[in-house]
Amino acid sequence: MPRALPASGRRAPTCAPGTGIAALDDHSLLAELELLHGTDARLFEDEELLGMVMPAIRSDYEALEGYRYQPGPALTCSVVALTGDNDRRVSLDQARAWSDVADTAFDLRVFGGGHFFLGEHTAEVADVVRGVLGC
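and the corresponding structure tokens:
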């Protein structure tokens, strides 16, 4: 069994899955990515690179939006939800809902920033993860 589950920038599985982003056309999907402020702007200018990464990006959204929670046994490992206080995709309530699937310890860690808070708080997030994993 895993020792812990760090869930970063993700809604709990009990929350509604998605917002239809996967069905957007390429232009609209790119606009959505730009709103999250986590992708280097130069990527959006490189048509060849976009052609290579767009299928993977779209597939990620399809997987996230296609998932349907099936109630079952609670997680027996500790769960720590990490989120940004200004995340456009994951509300604090949606991050906090990880407690609904945790049977043991649950912790919510909120960092300043949006969906890609990790870029601004790498050391702090690494400390949290090391602590949860007992490293």
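(Above: one complete record from the training split.) The first strand starts at residue 4 and ends at 8.
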